[in-house]
Amino acid sequence: MDIDIIQRLLENYKEGKIPLTDVLGKIRELPYKELGFAKVDIHRKIRCGFPEVIFCMGKTPEQVVKIVAHIVESGQDMLATRADSETYNAVLRKFPEAVYHEQAKTITIRKTRENINEGLIMIITAGTSDIPVAEEARITAEFMGNKVKALYDVGVAGIHRLMRNHGELLKANVIIVVAGMEGALASVVGGLVDCPVIGVPTSIGYGASFNGVAPLLSMLNSCASGVAVVNIDNGFGAACVASLINSKRE
Amino acid sequence: MDIDIIQRLLENYKEGKIPLTDVLGKIRELPYKELGFAKVDIHRKIRCGFPEVIFCMGKTPEQVVKIVAHIVESGQDMLATRADSETYNAVLRKFPEAVYHEQAKTITIRKTRENINEGLIMIITAGTSDIPVAEEARITAEFMGNKVKALYDVGVAGIHRLMRNHGELLKANVIIVVAGMEGALASVVGGLVDCPVIGVPTSIGYGASFNGVAPLLSMLNSCASGVAVVNIDNGFGAACVASLINSKRE
Amino acid sequence: MDIDIIQRLLENYKEGKIPLTDVLGKIRELPYKELGFAKVDIHRKIRCGFPEVIFCMGKTPEQVVKIVAHIVESGQDMLATRADSETYNAVLRKFPEAVYHEQAKTITIRKTRENINEGLIMIITAGTSDIPVAEEARITAEFMGNKVKALYDVGVAGIHRLMRNHGELLKANVIIVVAGMEGALASVVGGLVDCPVIGVPTSIGYGASFNGVAPLLSMLNSCASGVAVVNIDNGFGAACVASLINSKRE
Amino acid sequence: MDIDIIQRLLENYKEGKIPLTDVLGKIRELPYKELGFAKVDIHRKIRCGFPEVIFCMGKTPEQVVKIVAHIVESGQDMLATRADSETYNAVLRKFPEAVYHEQAKTITIRKTRENINEGLIMIITAGTSDIPVAEEARITAEFMGNKVKALYDVGVAGIHRLMRNHGELLKANVIIVVAGMEGALASVVGGLVDCPVIGVPTSIGYGASFNGVAPLLSMLNSCASGVAVVNIDNGFGAACVASLINSKRE
Amino acid sequence: MDIDIIQRLLENYKEGKIPLTDVLGKIRELPYKELGFAKVDIHRKIRCGFPEVIFCMGKTPEQVVKIVAHIVESGQDMLATRADSETYNAVLRKFPEAVYHEQAKTITIRKTRENINEGLIMIITAGTSDIPVAEEARITAEFMGNKVKALYDVGVAGIHRLMRNHGELLKANVIIVVAGMEGALASVVGGLVDCPVIGVPTSIGYGASFNGVAPLLSMLNSCASGVAVVNIDNGFGAACVASLINSKRE
Amino acid sequence: MDIDIIQRLLENYKEGKIPLTDVLGKIRELPYKELGFAKVDIHRKIRCGFPEVIFCMGKTPEQVVKIVAHIVESGQDMLATRADSETYNAVLRKFPEAVYHEQAKTITIRKTRENINEGLIMIITAGTSDIPVAEEARITAEFMGNKVKALYDVGVAGIHRLMRNHGELLKANVIIVVAGMEGALASVVGGLVDCPVIGVPTSIGYGASFNGVAPLLSMLNSCASGVAVVNIDNGFGAACVASLINSKRE
Amino acid sequence: MDIDIIQRLLENYKEGKIPLTDVLGKIRELPYKELGFAKVDIHRKIRCGFPEVIFCMGKTPEQVVKIVAHIVESGQDMLATRADSETYNAVLRKFPEAVYHEQAKTITIRKTRENINEGLIMIITAGTSDIPVAEEARITAEFMGNKVKALYDVGVAGIHRLMRNHGELLKANVIIVVAGMEGALASVVGGLVDCPVIGVPTSIGYGASFNGVAPLLSMLNSCASGVAVVNIDNGFGAACVASLINSKRE
Amino acid sequence: MDIDIIQRLLENYKEGKIPLTDVLGKIRELPYKELGFAKVDIHRKIRCGFPEVIFCMGKTPEQVVKIVAHIVESGQDMLATRADSETYNAVLRKFPEAVYHEQAKTITIRKTRENINEGLIMIITAGTSDIPVAEEARITAEFMGNKVKALYDVGVAGIHRLMRNHGELLKANVIIVVAGMEGALASVVGGLVDCPVIGVPTSIGYGASFNGVAPLLSMLNSCASGVAVVNIDNGFGAACVASLINSKRE
Hints:
homooctamer, alpha/beta, Rossmann fold, five-stranded parallel β-sheet, four-stranded mixed β-sheet, 16% strand, globular
């Protein structure tokens, strides 16, 4: 569209309909991104593999339904995170094909289901209470076209549970470690594998966990070197980073 | 002594030298601890196995020498912590038998060397930088009459180093885990053993370790249940608690 | 079980049914803990005196009932902490023998009631508001087979209440001090006794208590040396450590 | 002076030299405090008992000497706090009567030495390392004309040391409690006496004392009700408040 | 009572009914406070002017009613703080003479209404939202027998409101400054008066007030020297300290 | 009024009805602000352009209605912030002309609608969730007589959205940047424009945003120099500062 | 230059030397800012009134001299902040016209000295220790072409010092308030004037000032509405904002 | 080796030299990792591409030299981080081939120089002061066999500097963003590219940057989804993660 404007401008100029100074003026005024709009669009596709993710927290069910409609009508797959059941029911009434992932609190509407990326993303949790955050990561990563394997409740208080799965860990292209309390699992896993580890501290715990500060600091200070960290409870963000890592590994 | 005062008071009263009201008044004024002085003294002996530990930080070498003299002349063993080499040299000039433990920054003068407690205290560190704090704990624990075994540099980044020593861990009556950075070692050890674990977070690390806050929170939120924690870099305190635990295990 | 597998493997090898390389391969693949399963099991028994504790916070009543059933059916005693009355009622419907400790918010189903450990665990609180945390500790410690004595509301604002019980304190093998507000009680008790003190800071207080940070810091900086600390409101954890300490004191 | 200006203004007005509007305009412009200058001065005398205290931190020795000269030449007593020996030497060269209180790091030049206030201010410390802060309080309180009694090293780790002096505590009009580490002494003293207690947390300690935050929070959350708190290491401020309290008690 | 026990003990001893060693043993075992019980009781009366204050937060209405009954039946005045209207109604049903101070959320039952202390306690607030905390202080101070004057909504955003009342401020024996947001009022008042100022930071504010941390730090760092601070929202504590200060000023 | 008092005083004095000393005494007693009352009043008008803003949080609907009545009856425009719909309905019943701005949670009653200030205040947000805070700023700024232009959802995750509006930004006299999460928008805008930028961090976000601390710190550390910051979620305050800046730009 | 490239491109296209698609491709690749380079340059001039400010902290004297040379040789005025005397001496050797402002720790080389902006920037400090930060602001504001008036040591502990200068305050277009300790001055000034107030918290203080956190929070929570805040000790930043505000007031 | 032990054990058993129970006992005692030692070794090679990195902080020059010798003599490349010039000189005396990277404070001894990974790691900084941390990352990433491109001083205060290099950014496989102050660059870059972004907050800044906390929180709350974070100033760690990401992209 914008590129059309410029094209017409240039043709007019060539045909002598407008002077050079006018063309220069117009170009100077055109916002940069307008010039590159198409490219931007493409690189957004490349970047995420999907148009837009709806963060439902703080939005009314009606607002969410409206955005869902916009995405679905444009023929794209839809992912909504942090959605409660009330929001889901509102979406369901208009889009019977919508699927609710209760633990993950996410809604998806997907037409395509092939995996774009061949590599494996492994998602592991320290405890059972960390599973909702891990599930948000799992649904997101799968939605983005990744093969995902989940390994839950392998925290360091019983390290043999993790050790028993050492072989599985080594098959992953990238591992998402979801852990609350002291978050030690990220360091231990980081010391066992040869792929990047994305740590997701969770707000699971009480008292001096300070709603996830304890595992956050723990993961940032990991004595194993291959660990990077995202925000507390940010399963979605971890899956985004993991998918970007995995997308280059075919 | 104080008990003598009361005894005389009572005898005088019995002999009719002083009236009842006087006795009651005197007793009311006598400080409680005076009545129980001897008992207190004894229970201090029982509690620590030595009279007094000198915390040198913030004291001049001269002050330290004076307190050392007081202790040594009363025929007791002497332990001074957080002592720099200047302080040691000042002590050495007057007490050639003084021994300096450089990494632990402690000075000891001991006549007796038998172990009072039979059980084993194990002290393990995550990294080599944690060793000075661990050595403060080791010297203190030995001084208090405990058998001590040290196992250094077994942090979770290479968990096999710890696993290889699992058998050793199981021999301890109490384990002191000294760790900086993310302090994950305390949780991992806590999950492997059947004895109390005393966590000592250290200020080793930088940035978001916040001088030991990261491992402190980590250890307080340990997902393994048998872990209790002392102050950052407090090797001495950990050894005190460990010695009290160990002292009842003969 | 696992040890059976290895035994059979070795017998087959000895009998020439399988070659050496096969045996080596199998052993290498066997998880470490499998080799030591029996021992691990035993040491878990030794460590806790019971199979598993259910932390109810964040679990639905249905989930809790399922885990309770699993434990009870395997013939073991059951302890569930942080359980509200709704959860208790759900458990009660299936297990009429379940007992609810309202202040402690714990549910127990016990068949055995003998004390494994002879020593005494004393639990004291600074105020009446600290009692629920103390009760969690008491129920847990008793469940683990310890003799427990409770001494509540002896905070330092009226130090004579504590002094009056000095003799009682000296009978304990380990003392759990539960205190909110400024948490001074841990230091004072630590200075009066010759056994380890486990401090439990509570979130009792307001304003600058910061939900338990004030007593937490207070206890970590105790001027008495024999004090170690667990997480804020962690009565359960304190009882675990205390039981481990007490279990070696027969 | 200012009052003179107004007086003249009014006389001129009465004599018809200036119109009413002019007088109103002038009065409106006159700063409030100018009108009350003398009173303000007097109430500053009443408030502090001395003209001005020099806070030396961040001032060069030359700057301090200049202010000292200004105060001394106006015939008043002089108090300078947080002064190092270099500053003292600079002052001493010009004012041989200057006295340096080394532990308190204060300099005084006093002509009058009578006590203005009859009541007793008691200053007690938990440990020996808290003494410098306590000495700043003592010198300040004495300088302001109070009788002061010091009782050092009576921390709660050995509560009998404090108990032995219970009678002394009861004689005070106000007690300043100086304590680092966990600062429990303020609560304990607050529970033993019937006069206001001013808590001074000190930066003595390490690790989780966070340079005095631990005792600060401890004192703010005191379970004893008669305790108010000043800034960390603020011996001077505590003495100011205590002197104000004591000054009304003759 | 306890003193009776000792008296009888001594009489028996004098009469030769029990030997000296028995008396010494008994005395040693008697808790210190028992010996001084009467004195303690008296000094508690002196200290507070009333037997006990009920902190209702965290207590059920039934529990509060029970304690109220205990106090009232012993013939004493009763003060309960942090009481909601439900608790008040429960109290009212049994004690029709109970008065509820709605803003202060306190309940009182008083027979005596004379002022014990002659001096004036002034309570001022920065804004109208700080009034509930100030009212808790006012009711408490009056209950303790003090004359109280309230001056509300004189915050520094319109400093003339405070200045207009400068004369009033100077009449007080002690001033309680209740302020949220930035808490600047304490410093300003501290610079205007010659009596002690007790600062009460409130949790009024939002965002970077961090529930009262901003005014707390502000008051602790007051550039005026005569300011001491109590916990956030602690109107009761401020009144206690103020009453102790005022009680010596007759 | 006050000025009348002084005028009469002076006239009486001139007429010899009262002596000079009486006049001086009276003047000394008159509060400063009384002298300057009229001027103060005027400068309050200049400062804010309206008499008083009602901060509804913590006020009952009845209290708000009372204050609204007071303002409206005095013939002035009325602005109430942080008002919920219940409060609005209470106001509406008495003042049918009241308008509720739902997102901004503000109520206005305006008679005058002209813009006092000619310059433009631009308000931009990073995301859609920041809009309520921005709307509070917009309503406030318009109420104060400013032209306002809003540009929402131009956060840095898609920087081209902002770039496309670079020209618009340059037209503003002052820009209010409302952003939660990492708050980077303030720095980016600050680097693009030649007018002051007022940053408003919002509590939008979760985990390590710590209710707005992350964007607050971000804006305070802005690498662009023309940025100043107000409290978290303080749209009202930002509009006040912006209006003061804009008011001098006609 | 860049505009030349586009001009040539367009001419070539018009002359048929290159096809339309080539022109479009080239334009798309051209960075946005290149198109607008001249305009950007101009708006930078408008924005700051000078080319570049050197932040010396963390740069070697040699590095600073090199940048100074670059600026001076291009004929522009030079301002370097946070420069120590060693850096100044290095600059002085090459540029004898360089002036060092010792308290402000800034170096300037100025040819032009006229004021661009007519309005007055007033800079006030609470204490004498805040002066270095204020001086950094003053030198910066003057360098940017503003009239500046300084009013130092008018903190709220003696509020009359500020009141005496109320008239002066009202003359300013914008006021910079520099204050450490509790930072109350910003609120008080904000309540007295009708122009924007920029608060600069300083790290002056100790203990619970936490290196400037106390005044930072204080200023962010100002109960006066016209106050915005910059980073701790950021005199330079405050002057930038003030100059931007003032620059529109001719 | 260890596998040899087991082989011999099994052969002895088959030959009847030792009974089955002995074999089972021995196997149970063998550390798990011993069985897998060779594999572990290999996966460490795969993981890092080099044997060991020396973290020099807290090590004496002599200690560093010893470890360097150990690595070099085993024929491997050597990397030492956080090394000062004194340490470098000590290394240089024994290893003349050692290279010191002054800004990065790293020492390298490399024999092989080919790149193992084909993809590009781009490292960008917000300011010039962030360069040392970026250089640590660059040297580390190159040492690990990656192609690295550096783009320094492209902070968001002049966003056009970054935009001009948009094309370059798109060529990277992974981007390391090194930024202090408000750390906004990570979010902006994250919104412009389709590869993972590793944020490294730096301690560059002052006041409310709190030694890197501000950019750390900023990056953790990035509104762009593809950003993960490492510890403050941890250039080494960022390069490790980036290299792991890049290593799978050939």
